[in-house]
Amino acid sequence: MIADSSSWLKLTKKVRFGDTDAAGVMHFHQLLRWCHEAWEESLERYGLEAQAVFPGCRGQEQWPAIALPVVHCRADFLRPVHGGDQLSLHLTPQRLDPSSFEVHHRFLLEQQDVAHGWIRHVAISTETRRRSALPDAIERWLEASLIGRISEL
User: Fold this and answer.
1) 97-102 contacts: CB < 8 A, separation 24 or more?
2) In the chain, what is the straight-line distance between the N-terminal and C-terminal CA atoms, in Å?
3) CA 49, CA 52: separation in Å to the nearest integer?
4) Which cysteines are cross-linked by disulfides?
5) DSSP H or E segment with residue 40
6) What is the pLDDT of residues 27-78, one digit of tens each?
7) Where are the domains positioned within the chain?
8) Do the Cβ atoms of 10 and 96 come closer than 8 Å?
9) Is pLDDT at 148 greater than 90 in this prediction?
């Protein structure tokens, strides 16, 4: 696992032509897709293989015992994002309770906020479909994200 969280909580995203609409700005639905992809990339950079978290990966002998469905998502658009823009993306994970967490995604262009996205996940048993504790790997990722971060009392 990587100790320096800036390598797995601060990412970049180049806006591609296919991400834009006829007006040349990011199509609204792209933001939540980028949020989920950034979370996946963050897990990989941290050292977690996709097979440990996501079902249906190539070469996976069995699916994870715990699924992490999205139960809530939200996006705020602050400024237009155009094709060719190079965005900085900052992730801030937060455990909400023993079975859920949320990731806040902050998108910046030249140090200015252009969008924010939030995705909330709940851990459920793939067998019973009932809430369960977060998988150990996700717990480690959440704990590591707190290192060096000052939080309010």
Assistant:
1) 98/133, 98/134, 99/123, 99/131, 99/132, 99/133, 99/134, 100/71, 100/134, 101/134, 101/138, 101/142, 102/72
2) 28
3) 6
4) none
5) helix 30-46
6) 889 999 999 999 999 999 999 988 888 888 888 888 899 999 999 999 999 9
7) 6-146
8) no
9) no
What is the architecture of the domain spanning 6-146?
Roll (3.10)
21 as an active site residue: the answer is yes
- The one catalytic residue among 4, 19, 21, 76: 21
Distances (CA, A) of 39 to 45, 120, 128, 129: 10, 11, 26, 23
What are the beta bridge partners of residue 112? 109
Tokens matching residue 103 = 């990731």
Pull the structure tokens for residue 152: 């309010």
Question: For 91-129, how does the pLDDT look when each residue is reduced to its tens digit (9 = 90+)?
Answer: 999 999 999 999 999 999 999 999 999 999 999 999 999
Give the helix/strand (H/E) hosting 35: helix 30-46
